[in-house]
Amino acid sequence: MSxxxxxxxxxxxxxxxxxxxxxxxxxxxCVGLSGGSDSLALLVLTVEAAAARGRPxxxxxVDHGLHPDSAAWxxxxxxxxxxxxxxxxxxxxxxxxxxxxxxxxxxxARHDLLAEAVRAAGASVLLLGHTAxxxxxxxxxxxxxxxxxxxLREWSPSPAWPExxxxxxxxxxxxxxxETLRREVLRARGLAWxxxxxxxxxxxxxxxxxxxxxxxxxxxxxxxxxxEGREPLPSFGEREGWEDEGGEGAAGVVRLDLADxxxxxxxxxxxxxxxxxxxxxxAALARLxxxxxxxxxxxxxxxxxxxxxxxxxxxxVREPGRAGLPALPLQGRTIWDGxxxxxPDVGGLMVAPLAGRAARLPARDRAALSAxxxxxxxxxPAILAPDGGxxxxxxxxxxxxxARSLVHARLRAALHLIPREVPREFS
Length: 427
What we know:
By secondary structure, this protein is an alpha+beta fold. It is built from 13 helices and 17 strands.
């Protein structure tokens, strides 16, 4: 291997692994492997680093089925992974593909498939090969065609929901240029990589940004650069006290001090309280933040969540108007409405929103509702028995099921309050 930058590159990767990974975890390190240069170089470096930590490596390749040669490319990636000493699995995006918005749809499907595979492997970390070039391309897209595009972070929760609950994305190469990886890791080993023609297809915004960034690119960032400094993590102290305690928290209600509210926090809280998958951004979010910040009592809805302010604090709950979900069978453990993990005690039960069914609850369950804010009651899960009976699951009532809210654990991850690998929060 060439002398060049490989030593500082390895040192930077070791520092990133020490910063983010649990040294006691035996779980496999999962690597998203497209077969391109960035992900292949990441796999090479991860296999080396994982061996020193006694951890296996699992490479995951998504076959999107969008190119006649995609199956062959996928198999080639698998052969390379196994030759490097990693286990490997093929993941396929099947079914009809949209005629418009294909890049976004493919990205969403890819995240879903990867997150499910990481969880199935008993892992919680997915390493991705984004580089300094991707950072530059993202900045170019934010200045032009995609001003709402989020910034890449070294460590962030999976955007897939609920498939990605408890899964974190780890990008340890954000300070390294693509050319550095090709020269120091791949060419030095005689490894070939795939150049996906879609990366040069100027019909897509990412390809246009890549072409522009390539024309103006310099030698790349220092491999040891601290990219986390681009968007500092909030400290635990800054968020101390934000998480609600007691019955409201268990019911998925988020309570925040208005004095500490900012756009990213409000966006994350709305997303998590609603159980949705797309965080609100832009003018609508700014208007809501301005309205809540006046200090006057207010109530407003955005992104499937209702914000209710008393002038000092805001409660955020799922929008009751969206409670018209169909009754679903509880076939074992079920994630319901993106907000609750429900485990039934017996078979034959259904789950549905409580709205319109509260009058059928037993007296004890109805009494328990009084402790919760009125907007949160109708969007609680109701357990429907085959005989027509309606019960609240525990801990809200004494029904034959246990409901665990996912809202606050998801919010902790969204606010970057889980800065390193921990035992998977959502089993």
